């Protein structure tokens, strides 16, 4: 199992890479969303995560979608161009996020019913991503 280690001034975070559903950028911070419902707000730019994911044994699991999102395609259930959304799901995802107390880590509410997460993506990025994912699946 591969691990993502994140060091912050008052926190050391260790995450199993296969538990990451997606990473979403927000200025100089990124939200890491996990299968167990936890989310962490990390002071880092998304480019650093992209470089890290490219160095993994399972680098092909993580695909950048536009400027602000990296997804673990194993958890993708629906790509909907009409709604401009990616829906993640599966038996390993939990219904409700757990509360995360430590700082600078914060909780995000990205979970919707039926073990699903949903993310809105700009149409150009989503269309390109859909084509890329289709080519991966058809290999």
Question: What would your notes on this structure say?
Answer:
This protein is of the alpha+beta class and 139 residues long. The chain has helices spanning 46-54, 123-137, and strands spanning 3-8, 11-16, 20-26, 29-34, 39-42, 62-65, 69-72, 76-80, 85-89, 111-112, 116-120. The strands form three sheets. Strands 5-4-3-7-6 form a five-stranded antiparallel beta sheet. A four-stranded antiparallel beta sheet has the order 8-9-11-10, with no helix packed on it. It is globular. Mean pLDDT is 84; it is low at 96-113.
Task: Give a quick summary of the entry.
Helix content is 17%, strand content 39%.
- Assess the beta-strand content as a share of residues: 35-45%
Helical percentage? 10-25%
Order of helices and strands: EEEEEHEEEEEEH
List the uncertain runs. 96-113
Can you give the mean pLDDT?
84
Strand order within the widest beta sheet: 5-4-3-7-6
Distance between the termini: 25 Å
Mind telling me the C-alpha Rg? 14 Å
Identify the overall geometry. globular
Coarse structural class: alpha+beta
Our count of helices gives 2
**Biggest sheet details:** 5 strands, antiparallel
| Count of extended strands | 11
List the helices and strands and how they pair.
Layout: E1 3-8, E2 11-16, E3 20-26, E4 29-34, E5 39-42, H1 46-54, E6 62-65, E7 69-72, E8 76-80, E9 85-89, E10 111-112, E11 116-120, H2 123-137
Key words describing this protein structure:
139 residues, alpha+beta, five-stranded antiparallel β-sheet, four-stranded antiparallel β-sheet, 2 helices, 11 strands
